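Predict the 3D structure for this chain.
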Amino acid sequence: MVKKAINLMLGIGLLSVYACADHTLHLTKSGLNPDNFKSEVNGKSTALYTLVNDNGVEACITNYGGRLVSLMVPDKNGNLTDVVLGHDSIADYINIDGNFGALIGRYGNRIDQGRFTLDGQEYQLPQNNFGHCLHGGPKGFHHVVWDAEQPNDSTLHLTHFSPNGEYGFPGNVKVDVIYTLTHDNAVSITYNATTDAPTILNLTNHSYFNLSGNPSNDICNETIWFDADGFTPIDSTFMTTGEILAVAGTPFDFTTAKPIGKDLSSDNEQLKNGRGYDHNMVLRTPRDTSMPAAILTDSVSGIKMEVFTIEPGIQFYIGNFLDGTVKGKNGIAYPYRSAICLESQHYPDSPNNAQWPSVVIRPGETYRSNCTYKFSTL
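Done. Predicted structure below.
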């Protein structure tokens, strides 16, 4: 009996070891535990989806908010490096306010006072940012659980139905978003949407990038180039004024690549209004997706990120509201200006500026957009 008991105890011990080993094997390359993303939000199941390519690059995405949680790309020494900010669990994404890695809709960026008029009818949206509607409101697409299907190792298909009147927007809207991890180390995000009534749409992704691989570092020494001759100035409430200003002779001139922090201390009204860079860059048109719209590099890690998009603008934001109080993956606090967002988009407040590219979509039309973040080394 004693021998049998000992054997049984040894067996249980071995099973525990194997269970631990199996658990460890299921961690992602970035150290995420998929079990921490298994939850239920508003009656729908959440999960973590892992995309990989033949080069060993890994992208982890959760269907809660369609968020890019981690992105492991090779640095100049061939070491895989996580280049996006995020959290370790669904609980953190729910409890900590932020848009880390999220899909944004129905309208990315701001709408003045949350009001717009379409076909003679005025609509009122939530006012969640200095009196304006930001990113579709406080419960926009970044807080919904998307329906998810992963047809292969490198593709994730997300869908969401947004009913008429949701967040104040008109029309029943069906949205499809496809994340693709390509063979040349790019994350491509393709958006398609349809509506049964006239409405407005401006979808984007709100990933926070830090190419150093260490989110404790600020990004002021990272270098950026924009294919942009203009930008849309803002007032002290971050609302665009309806103008387009030339970048020439201003701190916003990145037509020649320069460190992000080079001109941040300039005595410039727009930098004061934005607390730094928090502006829409007006890209040269027509957009040619064979050419990058922006290029971001980090000289220490040697990582280079090229941004390709069919959109007319990119929101350039450098983490001016990060202050070290938010803790992300691995318990690391995200300090001031520790990341950069490059959000492909139509311009802010376009519904109230008829002179700008339209964001109106009507029945029978299909909204289409794409943004690709491609990684290589210097």
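DSSP finds three helices and 28 strands in the chain.
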